[in-house]
Amino acid sequence: MKKHAHLWTHKYFFKISLRKVLIIAFILQLLVILSLVNILSFRYGQQAVLSVTERLREEITARVTQNLQTYLNIPVALNQIHSNAIESQLLNPYELKIWRDFLWKQIKYHDSISFTVFGNERGDFISVGAKDEKGNAITGVNISRLNGEYDLYRYRTDKNGRLTDLVSVNTHFDPRTRPWYKAAVEAGKPTWSDIFQRTDDPNLVLSATRPIYDSHHTLQGVLTTSFRLSALSEFLETLDMPEGGLVYIIEDTHKLVANSIREPIYRIAHDGVSSLRRHTEQSEHKLIQISGHHLQNQIKKNGALAQFWNSTFEFGQQEYLLQVTPFQLEKKINWLIVVVLPKKAFMSPIYESTRDTIMLSLVATFIAMISAWLMARWISRPLRQLQQRVHWLMALDWEKSTLPIQLKTPAFFNSKMEEVDDLAHSFNEMAKKLQHSFDTVQAVYNNAACGIMLFNLAGQIRQMNDLGCELFGYQSDEMNQVNLFHLMPTIDRGYHQQKLANLLNNKTDNYRSEQRFNRKSGELFWLEIWVARIVLNGVNELTFMAVLLDVNDRKRMLQALNENRQRLQSIINHLPLILYHVDSNGIFTLLEGRGLNILDMNPSDIVGQSIVAIYKDNPEILRNLEKSLKGDFVRYELALNEVVFEVQQFPVHNEEGQTTSMIGVALDITERRQAEQVLQRAHAQAEQARKEAEQANHAKSAFLANMSHELRTPLNSILGYAQLLIQANQLNEHQKESLRIIMRSGAHLLTLINDVLDISKIEAGKLELFPSDFYLPEFLKEIVDLFRLRATQKGLTFGYEQIPTHHQLEGNKGFPIIVHADEKRLRQILLNLLSNAVKFTEKGHVSLKIIYRDNHLRFDIEDTGCGIPTDQLEKIFLPFQQIGSQNYVEGTGLGLSITRRLVEAMGGELHVNSMIGVGSIFWFEVQLAALSYTVKTPPTTELLTIKGYHPLMTSNHHPKTYRILIVDDISENRLLLVNLLKPLGFELKEAKNGFETLLIAKNWRPDAILMDLKLPKIDGLNITRRLRKHPRFQDTIIIALTADLFEYNRENSLEAGCNLFLTKPVEHQQLLDGLQQTLQLEWDYAPSSEAEKNAEKKITPHPLEQQQKIDALLRDFDLSTHIEQLAHFCRAGRISQITQYVRDLQNQQPELQPFTEVILTHSRSFNIAKIQLFLQTCQKE
């Protein structure tokens, strides 16, 4: 009985007909859709309204913020204008008479400004108030009384700013007690005052204040510009607000600043004059009171607002939207912008639309119910017949049966519903294809020549074909209880689990591996396994398919190969190294070599073991193993048991290029490393000795530099004043000769200093040559004249002979006129040799013979002195060595040592022959490039007396009178330059340190600066760099003066931006030539012969070969742009920019080297005139 009741309940109570399902589903869907439409319509409408209101509030807030910035920027800008006028000395903080017109013009165009004032520390005060409707303004002036106090007089002005009527007088008015004045003094910088009441009316104002300080940071007064807060309210009234909405601004203390409803933000106190600020809760407008109270509660609850904040509140049974935005400006301005909008003003249309939508939905539901019932009745009838065929197909056993009959379509289908008829035919075709597919898959699965297995992520085998079961020795029904990972050795399980994880993460589509497995009997055999992830319908868990191939025979063949390889073990064991092989799984498959005996290792204990397990505590081995198995060649050193091995590991690749294993070779290099350590210690000791020698050399160089500087500093004054005095016309010949003796003595001392510095450079290997073009006959004439005079004074005869070549040179025979060499060093060589000859000769003669042959000059210096012993000929070239009595011989003993090094640096060799009692002859030969063989009149060397100068060009950049700033920390040096330059008409100023230099240069704007490089606190190079960074001083001429003769000073000066580099003691003519080149001026000379005035300037041509190269460049390349740019730098005297430009050009176009080398040669000597002459020659060609 119970059984029949259950069947009846299941049949009639729990089941429902298709007709009812279609009707109910259609009705439910329609109801759900209509409900969702209504709900979403209402919600989206509400969200749209809220979005609109939020954008409206943001727009209102943005407009308010923007205008607040505008209103607040105007007072600050006016204060800045007034401050600039004071700094520009247009306004005097203690002369307020001219302030009134200036302030009236400033306030004339700013309606929001209440007043602008200035009060000074003396109590003076001037103010100009805002204009009224008629264009008049109120001007206040403090007038001093006899007792030192001030009275404030307020006048009305007309439209033109003129005073008309006296409005009021405030006695005892002191601006220094006003809030705006105190705020500025307390802040010490531009700031804002608190909101305060004006003295002449109850309106509230806000002031931007700015203290004014003089150059000594002494307070002079305070500028203040104020604007009316009522101007903010007037602006807020102009905002387009919905009905019932408002905007107001409050301070963080909730005191009102402005509002959009014309409500005063203050109330008059009982005295009838003072204004009292209103709090939001004191407002007469209820909405401001309620919103302010709500805002205050939120701030108490959540803390101060750091950004804008939205909220809602109710008032009068109505919901309001509230938005608060902080507005901050410095520390004084900390306001809140509050926007209040009624929500009702936006939601009314949404409520009406929702009611109409609900009514239409009810009507549509009724119509849909009738339509659904008719449609369901029509559709369900033919589907019942199709249902019977489906039940029959579901009951069919696919493995044992085929489709015996064809499904037939009832006549009702054909006549009424085409879709259902097509469904029946498709159903029949589907059944056939399903049967065919199942048969095909089953045939492949059962007859495959490999094992096929399905398993899950945990390794549980779900299905396996017959061949797979045969490989493992299991029956088909036993495989479902077997786990794949349990069939593997333990060490291999992690590898496959990682590979399966890669398949899950889509890092690979499949993977292949040759793996050991255990049969049911426990036998270990090899399989090649291919694994891929598959997706099965109706199966919820992850499924993998594996294809299994038996490779046990192949492995046995490999084992046979290994046996053959073992036959070579005796040979490998005798090699002085360790050879090993590791497969892709990290297993040692080979370990041989005589080196194993050193480590006391047995290969049989290691081969077959995992290298990871053996060397798990040695990360270096594992790291390099990983690199090798990834395909990289690895070479490293490894220390094991105090034995050092050099290890090389080679990856082994298969045909596909995959790394399958690696071979390693370890060589014992312990003895070699020990020898290297000994060698390294020796190198370290040598390096330490070298560093100590360098440190000593550096210390010596620093000492010599300081010594040179200290000696040259007084010599600068001695020789400088001697040069000045010798040009005086009132001196007699005896006095002039005395000055010449001073100059010669100073020059001798300077030579001794230079010798010491030169020997230091030679020992440090830093001796450099700086060849230039010079006039050889005049050069030799100066030397010959000098030593002919010395020889005559000592009672000796001096002979001079020059022998030219006798073959044709450029079509002319003769001695070279202009040569290219280091003039300074050649002069130093000849002076040293001739000085020694005169010094050591008591009677007889001294001679100089010069022989020119094939661009080589040979100099022979012969004397009839005491002679040099043969065994001492090499000793005389050592530093600080002298031959003879110390009381008889003067000098330092450095001359010959320096001379020999200089000759060698110039490519020659110094020789000597000597005989005791007969004399000595020194000779050397150097190569000098001859530039010209034409005999020319030598340039004049006579110094003309300069009385003044005139610029070559007169303009804003070239004034008639040049300003020169002299920078030196020693007053005597500055006075010397003043005495030299002031008589010539220059306008001079002095500075003794870097701070004074920067200050004077900024205020005075000199045309040239004579810069001593060694200054206290800030040296001359840093001052030059600072000046060059400023646009004002890009074209200012800076000439470096220093007593440090080292070449790096010249290079550093050039890099820092100096136009010229001169050493102390300064040669006056050299300094004047430098000023003439850089400032582009001509000297005015005292009256003299016409020949002296029109003396021809020395012109230095280029070597013939070099000139030919330059001519070729000018034909092949267009250099006009580069020539124009370089000419511009020359006119501006920018030697550093010339050098940088030419070096960049040389790097970019190496083929222009002949052109660039000429300019670089002249730039090293700061000779702008020669560069200009060379560029003019290039332009003509």
Structural description of this entry:
This protein folds into 8 domains: 68-228, PAS domain (Beta-Lactamase), CATH 3.30.450.20; 232-345, PAS domain (Beta-Lactamase, 2-Layer Sandwich); 396-439; 448-555, 2-Layer Sandwich (Beta-Lactamase), CATH 3.30.450.20; 579-652 and 659-668, Beta-Lactamase (2-Layer Sandwich); 769-931, Heat Shock Protein 90; 946-1091, 3-Layer(aba) Sandwich (Rossmann fold); 1100-1178, no CATH class. It contains 33 helices and 41 strands. 45% of the residues lie in helices and 23% in strands. The longest helix is centred in the N-terminal third of the chain and has 70 residues, at 18-87. Helix 31 runs antiparallel to helix 32 (1153-1164). It is of the alpha+beta class and 1181 residues long. The radius of gyration is 54 Å and the shape is flat. Strand 17 (451-456) and strand 18 (461-464) form a beta hairpin. Residues 511-563, 627-681 form the PAC domain. The modification 4-aspartylphosphate is found at residue 1012. Its main location: membrane. Keywords: ATP-binding, Cell cycle, Cell membrane, Coiled coil, Kinase, Membrane, Nucleotide-binding, Phosphoprotein, Transferase, Transmembrane, Transmembrane helix, Two-component regulatory system.
